[in-house]
Specification:
This protein is an alpha+beta fold. The protein has 15 helices and nine strands. It folds into two domains: about 230 residues, Orthogonal Bundle (Triger factor/SurA peptide-binding fold); about 100 residues, Chitinase A, domain 3. InterPro entries: PPIase_dom_sf, PPIase_PpiC, PrsA_foldase, Trigger_fact/SurA_dom_sf.
């Protein structure tokens, strides 16, 4: 079932897979780590008059409590009811810090003459929902019907794209990766980069949920195996009878290497030839019938095949470090005044004065 919450999680996963995953996730899915120069600065940033409805003021720009409450509620709604009250303040603070950094990104982008159009943001959203059979207009309607704000999502995307541009402008020389760097990484990680032996298999699972139903489950599996050995279509029988979600794909599990499946299942699969069907195999999940449909032999890593992937990985690592540095500089240069609700505790201010990193925990 397609849900707004599920699609947002999917969006986050898709963003992480992209080349800029270490950067975009800073705004959308990670907590902010804030380091202040001293307790005096922390006190200065925390001082504010009791302004009704204002959560914080960032370089003179007000952030409304209503916005914080609204976004926090989306997160809290996924918590069990008995946990919501105890987590509310912590979640609101996390949300506020995310909004604050987004505001700083917006201000920095304006200062540097950086802009991101609505069209570019919507293209990003389209890319993020491309795996679902749904149009952008349908997605907008679903968000509206669920009482969510599409504009908030678009703003998050805009801030992340702006931050990407800021990093590209400020750290282009710091993120270069040489051919020597790539080769050294390859030579040090050949074993990790090698491809292990893999098999592609389909299976039928008859679950056992108690000791009492084991015999019945075994008998059903043996009956299905006889049908298959008599010429029955494995995929059709799997779709009709298997208790595994893979039944929708005719039991197809795709390729997997050793260490991915439970022992008995794995041993049976790797000992079969392509096109061969196993006997009934018992695991803690129940009784399986396994069909091996393809195999890939182990393969040593080849530099030419891996070099661009390695280069991208090393660039991402450097971009992540550059992003951390730029983020820290932006936070330290900002004047941030919290409302009384979100003032840092005295002990946190003391940690800051000692140069300790203040990390807002989940």
């Amino acid at each position: 079932m397609f849900t707004i919450e599920g699609s947002v999680l999917k969006i986050r996963k898709n963003l992480e897979r992209k080349k800029m995953k270490l950067i975009k996730s800073l705004l959308i899915v990670t907590l902010l780590t804030v380091t202040f120069a001293s307790a005096e600065e922390a006190d200065k940033q925390s001082e504010t008059k009791d302004l009704s409805g204002v959560a914080a003021i960032v370089n003179g720009e007000k952030i409304g409590m209503e916005k914080v409450d609204s976004l926090a509620e989306m997160t809290l709604s996924r918590y069990p009811k008995q946990m919501r009250e105890s987590q509310a303040t912590k979640i609101k603070k996390r949300v506020l810090d995310t909004i604050i950094f987004g505001e700083l990104v917006s201000q920095k982008a304006e200062e540097m003459g950086i802009s991101v159009s609505d069209e570019r943001c919507e293209k990003e959203v389209k890319d993020m929902i491309s795996s679902k059979d749904i149009t952008l207009e349908q997605y907008k309607k679903m968000i509206k019907d669920a009482g969510k704000d599409y504009g908030e999502l678009l703003d998050q995307v805009r801030r992340s794209l702006e931050f990407e541009k800021i990093i590209n402008k400020l750290s282009s020389d710091d993120v270069k990766v040489s051919d020597k760097d790539v080769k050294e990484y390859f030579d040090s990680n050949k074993e990790k980069l090698a491809s292990p032996k893999q098999v592609k298999a389909s299976h039928i699972l008859i679950k056992t949920e108690s000791k009492e139903d084991q015999q019945a489950a075994k008998e059903k599996a043996e009956e299905l195996l006889k049908k298959i050995n008599d010429g029955g279509d494995f995929a059709a029988i799997a779709k009709e009878n298997s208790d595994c979600p893979s039944s929708e794909r005719g039991g197809d599990l795709g390729f997997f290497s050793r260490g991915r499946m439970v022992g008995a299942f794995e041993d049976a699969a790797f000992n079969l030839e392509v096109g061969e069907v196993s006997d009934v195999v018992k695991t803690k999940f129940g009784y399986h019938i396994i069909l091996v449909t393809d195999k890939k032999e182990a393969k040593e890593a080849v530099f030419e095949d891996q070099k661009e992937k390695i280069r991208e990985q090393l660039v991402n690592q450097k971009m992540g470090k550059a992003a951390d540095k730029i983020r820290e500089n932006m936070m330290q240069a900002a004047t941030i005044r919290y409302s009384d609700v979100f003032k840092p505790e005295e002990k946190e201010a003391k940690k800051q004065s000692e140069g300790t990193e203040l990390k807002i925990e989940e």
